[in-house]
Write a structure and sequence with these properties.
Protein Transport Mog1p, Chain A; 8-stranded antiparallel beta sheet; 3 helices
């Protein structure tokens, strides 16, 4: 009987330890307003290049750093016009082009002498542009800008 009680106790103890050690994935968002974007770029745990060309009337409005398990995974910078109806999202992340959404039709395109991809989903009007540079995956998304403008913005990333 003592062996049985000891066995049950040890089973429960081991099960409790395993249960307590399993943790949920924790995402954290760090939000920066337009005056803090430079600070956000400095806070990142990896170096990101930003576009030097942005169409007239569109300005940097803010940024969000996505943190997973205390590691910075990506930064999203929003560029919008005065009434927030026109603009783009510029995203840089630790990822690969293999992680691009499959519901989007991607076509290869040349960006600064590298292969990038431009895409759109059949049920959406937004355009996507993605490419890799030094281990960083860059993406530009816009509902309103043309393919030519997105390519010009991407080509302005040093």
């Amino acid at each position: 009987m003592k062996k049985y009680v000891l066995l049950v106790f040890l089973t429960l103890l081991v099960g409790s330890i395993i249960f307590l050690n399993e943790k949920e994935v924790e995402w954290e968002l760090k939000v920066y307003d337009q005056n803090e974007v430079e600070s956000a770029l400095e806070d990142l745990q990896f170096k990101v290049k930003v576009p030097t060309y942005i169409p007239n009337g569109i300005t940097m409005r803010g940024a969000v750093i996505y943190v997973l398990e205390r590691e910075h995974r990506s930064i999203e910078i929003r560029y919008l016009n005065e009434d927030n109806a026109d603009g783009l999202i510029f995203d840089a992340s630790l990822g690969t082009l293999e992680s691009l959404p499959e519901n989007i039709q991607w076509e290869p395109i040349s960006l600064n002498g590298q292969v990038g991809y431009i895409g759109h989903a059949d049920d959406m009007v937004e355009l996507f542009l993605a490419w890799m540079d030094n281990g960083i995956m860059y993406q530009i998304t816009s509902y309103t800008l043309s393919e030519e403008e997105l390519v010009r913005i991407a080509n302005s990333v040093p």
